[in-house]
Amino acid sequence: MSIVKMKRLRIFGMASDCEELLRKLQHLGCVELRAPTQPSSDPGWQGFTAKSDGELANAQLRMDEFRATLERLKRCSPTNKKGRFPSRPRITERELFDRQIVLEAEETVERVAALEKKRDSICAEQNKLIGQREALTPWLGLDVPLDTVSTKHVLVLFGTLSGLASHQAVEAALAETTELCQVQWAGRAGELQYVLVLCHRKAGDAARDALKNFGFTATSFRGWKGTARSNIDQIEDRQRILSQELEACRARLAQEAGHQTALQICIDRMTQDIQRMEAKEKLLSSTSTFFLEGWVPAEQLSDVEHLLSQYSAAWEATDPEPDEYPQVPVKLKNNRLTRPLNMVTDMYVYPAYDGVDPNPLMAPFFIFFFGMMMADMAYGLLMLAGGIFMRRKLRPSGTMEHMAGLLILCGISTFVMGALTGSFLGDFLPRLAKLIRPDTTFTALPALFTPLTDTLAILIGSLALGLLQVLTGMAISVVRKVQAGTWTDALWDEGTWWIILAGVALAVVGIGNLGGYPIVLLIGLLMLLYGGTRNAKGFGKLTALIGTVYNGATGFFSDILSYARLMALMLAGSVIAQVFNTLGEVSGSVAGFVIISLVGNALNFMLNLLGCYVHDLRLQCLEFFGRFYKEGGKPFRPLLINTKYVDIKEED
């Protein structure tokens, strides 16, 4: 439970071994590669350059294709028969890097692309046919072939007229122009009327002039043959064929959804390949050699040295110098109990390399505080069940794994505190018993204390817990300062407050008074004044004195007062649960009570889960970490096999 010591690793190797060595380093998963810091002006480094080719860009493009295809198959996939939370496949590393998986995935990508292209083509043709059918529908009343054309003596005009024009007015206007004219009304659609006009060619111009007064627009049927009815029949026949082809295409896409696993494995495999390519771009290479620089945990250095001994390579591993500490990656070493607290550390900021691992120091406070604020047996059981389900069913990694572990630990704490306060969904059980049997003597679960009746005691306990955590943080700070050789800072900063607190306690019980004055407390106050101004000069001493008194007193005691939120959230959660139980009891029926109470408690649980986490996080990051935490570290990011869709198991 500490910050792992790191070694700076430098390797010179043969260019022919580079790819294989990177693959094996990825298998070890304990080396973080960094771009070398050697000056390019050094003559000894001439010929070494950082090389970048199109291999990485091509791999990323292929990865995008695989991901896009996977998303398409998920949309086309029928109902998942594996359940809502399917288990991740477990495969060996050999199976992950099997070339056959990539070939199968590439074939799937090609087939899916071809099927989607065909599907899009069918949909485009269907839309075109729909448009053609809509255009022909108004002409159904005309039993004349659409490809009828004008002859030497007869002019044939297909077109549309305004919907406001009456048949009699149109026919009368044409009759006044020429007797050699006939109008056939085809139909009407929207604000247009569809007509066929036949007239002698000599009267063509006069007929057109007469029709213009009614908004006539000529229509062309180029490419159409036969009547509108016969063409619509052909369109409907084609639409039925296309519908069948589309269903067949969708069915084949649904069948391709069975290749999702292969695509997922391929994506995981491509992720590892891309990581190696990105690492390779951090190397310096010449025509025959390469240079690698990075960091490795000291405890795993022997594994790396054993690997390097199998190659024609030269290497060195050195301890970082103090001025290099800001660049040294930070790896936290924790056990199963404290590892879930990485979720908190990740959300804040990593400690500096020469700092202290906060997880084991924070764990008892964070877990207990969370349980104290939630304080309900049912809520604790829900959290415990949720954490166990996530671990066993989903097998998460990274932040989600830490979340599952934190749910389990805080669930246990919540259940214990709920048992101490006698809370199970608030007062759900006594109220339910009263509804079932009004004369019952079961009025409450046994409790050591309750938020509603022992509010003041809980408030005092919360402040006492806050004082304990603040003092713990101060003690850690003292140890760190003494180790760094700045014991005077520890004396004037933390030591002063310890003497003041001891003086207050002695003054309360009447011990250590001289002439009626609390000597220990006065010594502490004098130390506070001197310690705050010891580095100031001239007028700065006055301002430092004012700042010391104001910031010291208000800062310290306001930090302690912040822990009153422990009582506030415990009380709020308990009251809200009882309010919903009361609303349910008003219904007068067991069913109504159970429904209202469970819905209300579900809401209360979700709000408390978020609220307790946020407030607990605030106490740790501000009140506790502020006492000793040295931040600024960069998380250790080694080259390793990191999968999203599958879990890697050991070779048989």
Automatic annotation (TrEMBL):
GO cellular component: proton-transporting V-type ATPase, V0 domain; vacuolar proton-transporting V-type ATPase complex
GO molecular-function term, one example from the UniProt record: proton-transporting ATPase activity, rotational mechanism
Membrane topology note: Multi-pass membrane protein
InterPro entries: V-ATPase_116kDa_su
Keywords: Ion transport, Membrane, Transmembrane, Transmembrane helix, Transport
Bilayer-crossing regions: 365-390, 402-425, 456-479, 491-509, 515-532, 566-584, 590-610
Cross-referenced Gene3D superfamilies: 1.20.1460.20, 3.30.70.2170, 3.30.70.2750
GO BP: any one term: vacuolar acidification
Compartments, as annotated in UniProt: Membrane
Pfam families given in the database record: V_ATPase_I
Family the entry assigns: Belongs to the V-ATPase 116 kDa subunit family.
Protein known as: Uncharacterized protein
Source organism of the structure: Flavonifractor plautii 1_3_50AFAA
